[in-house]
């Protein structure tokens, strides 16, 4: 007949357990029981060395032995002065030579790209493809039309002579200067000669005034003619649009 065993934790019978106890379960039960033996009534109590109390003198032999053992352990890890190698001084000249060496700062720059967006596009150029920068075309100035005449402004020449016309007039005046005003006056000039010279100068100035007036009239007539032509052209263009 099998001996009945009880558990220390539950005090239930292990032999009457529903689960069949094989070797592994039996081993597990034994270990569990062995662990709970430490908590039996006779094992419960204060921890070890808890009730130790008292005072020990500094001259106690036991304390001196503990301290001596501690110092011996520390001495093993220390290096004695006799075992240290003597330090050899380096010559002063060698140190000075090393210190006199110049130090040059070396600046390392990041490598730059060899191509930019404009130059890389130039490599795609062929017979039909010519890459270039896109330029924004300048906006044309709006044409302003006169409210009186209906002719575009700033198209006809402005009032007065242009720069080229002024230059041309100066060349003409420079080549055809009045002779009476350019001839040197004689010191022994008589009254009749002086009177004749002044009269000649007056006549030449009168001719220049008449020539200037004729030029102004010619420019005025030419301007009127061009304005009429532009007006007729504008009317003809409007007639073409209506038809």
TrEMBL record:
Biased composition range(s): Polar residues: 233-243
Any Gene Ontology CC annotation: nucleus
Biased composition regions of type Basic and acidic residues, renumbered to the chain: 186-231
Region named Disordered: 173-243
UniProt-listed GO biological process terms: ribosomal small subunit biogenesis; ribosomal small subunit export from nucleus
Pfam annotation, one family: LTV
Record-stated family: Belongs to the LTV1 family.
Descriptive protein name: Protein LTV1 homolog
